[in-house]
Amino acid sequence: MVRLMASFCCIVLALAGCAPGQSGGPTVFAAASLRPAMEEIGAAWEARGNEAPVFSFASSSALARQIEQGAPADVFVSADSRWTDFLLAQGSVDSGNFRVVARNDLVLAVPAGAQDTAPDLAGEIARGGLVTGDPATVPLGAYAAEALANLGIADPRGVIAIPAENARAALVLLERGEAERGILYASDVASSDAVEVAYPIPSAMHSPIEYTAVIVPVSGHPQAQAFFDFLASPSAQAIFAKHHLKVP
Which end of the chain is more exposed for a tag (fewer CB within 10 A), N or C? Predict the structure, then answer.
């Protein structure tokens, strides 16, 4: 009986040691468009003697909903402050630990080497067949819908042929030639040899694209605050800039 109890205690301790968000580095939920930059930032963080962060990348809306439902995130980096505001209203993130770590722009992109483009932004968008994020659920799509509305297109469904599940998925679809044009983040287009900018989309046509980092206080991870602070460090900011993101 004593041996059985001892074995049981060892199992419990082992499971406790494997609890998400507590063993290893902090669990970081981040917008899909940040993946290349965040993975390099994670490597820089680990190189300083810290435990490697565990990343989860998806649309900011999907990640926010997971956090609302109790997913074990320690830090959340959203591509749209509306989703951090949503979590603040739910009491799911810490209003005292909230900062903009990077910014982005929108562009109208086409496959590299495309010859047949309209003479202006409005004309190219009017052709339709766009790929971008799903306006109902993905920040990229919401920004795109705002830009379309400012171009006189009230119903984005008329020109968006493929509403992608996140920004990186939209980039991949355009790279594969599954669409002829797309509204994408400038950083994603700059990272790819398969697509190019046809027209920049003026920032006045949409809400500011700001990546907002927050701490999820329920996690209690001992390195959450340190990683959150590291995102604003000169080293991390240089990595964001390297990946064609604007820094505050």
Answer: N
